[in-house]
Structure formats: C-alpha cells, structure tokens
Amino acid sequence: MSANFEAKKVVVEEIKDKIQGAKSVVLTHYDRLTVKEVTDLRNKFRAASCEYKVYKNTLVRKAFDELGVTDFDNDLNGATAFVFCPDETSGCSIIAKAVKENPVLADKVVPKSAYVGGAYVDAEGVKKLAAIPSREVLIAKMLGCLQAPIANLAFVLKAIADQKS
C-alpha cells in the first residue's frame, strides 16, 4: 500500500476519535474568509474549548461511514469546516454570535448541519441549538428560580417580625 493511503487512514482515525470524543460536531460552509476572520473564529472556538478544523470531505465521509452514520453525505460537499465541541450548544452559539457581531460573516460562515448526541441535526436544528443558553446560564437560572421562593418567604417573615416590634 502506498504511503499516501496509509496517511489518509491515519487522518480518518484521527477524525473518528475527534467525533467520538466530542459531544457535538458542527459542519459549516465557509467561503472567502480573510485570515483575520478565520483567526478570530478560531480564537472564539478555542476560548470555549472547541476545535475548528478543515478536513477533506471524503475523509470525513469515510470516518462517519466507519462510525455507521450516513446522514451527512449531502452536507459533505463544497468548502466545509468542522467544529468539535465539548458540549451540545457552544459551537452553534459561537457561530451565531460571530455572525451577529459581524454581519459580513452572514454569507461567509453558514452552518450546514451538526452531529449532536449521536444524531443528525439539520441547519434549522443548528439555529435552534444556537438559541439555547449555555449550561452555566441554565444552571444559574434554575438556581435563581429555586432561591426566589426562599428569599420571598424570608422577606415576608421579616416583615411580620418588624410589624410586631
């Protein structure tokens, strides 16, 4: 076997490991990005512990096929970047936030689909995932909801105690 074939097998194994190690993988179309725009995106992803990579579509298709996932065959065409994320929503929300901050990116970076929790998510699903707050924000909201009744009870009890004195 040729050295090139062996090198491709190594890359396919690397991609498979990244897919299996990530809670979500976002496939995004990119076009005419400047070096500064790509660097800014990579830095945003890096800050969220995500990894932004560009691989050959055929190698990613092979990796997904070896994992038994064939839903991405239509999305693996054209210029495609892959974002491997440690959680379900960060990759989607970073892309949405970057496009919101810099409207020039709206045509340059377009999410195609995602692989979340072992399931295929289409472009509309990616937009919905982007709207979900981060895990930390959801936990803070839940704690606030749990703490509110206790705080209100303490306020009422204090008011009753102040009236009696």
What's the short story on this structure?
This protein has 165 residues and is α+β, with helices and mostly antiparallel strands. It has helices spanning 3-21, 35-47, 57-66, 90-101, 123-131, 135-164; strands spanning 24-30, 51-54, 80-85, 109-116, 119-121. It has a 5-stranded antiparallel β-sheet, sandwiched between helices.
What layout of secondary structure does this protein have?
Blueprint: H1 3-21, E1 24-30, H2 35-47, E2 51-54, H3 57-66, E3 80-85, H4 90-101, E4 109-116, E5 119-121, H5 123-131, H6 135-164
Antiparallel strand pairs: 1-3, 1-4, 2-3, 4-5
Largest sheet: 5 strands, antiparallel
Would you give the CATH topology of the largest domain? Alpha-Beta Plaits
Number of domain units: 2
The tally of strands reads 5
The strand order across the widest sheet is 2-3-1-4-5
Kindly, what is the distance between the CA atoms of the first and last residues, rounded to a whole number of angstroms? Answer: 91 Å
- What is the approximate shape? elongated
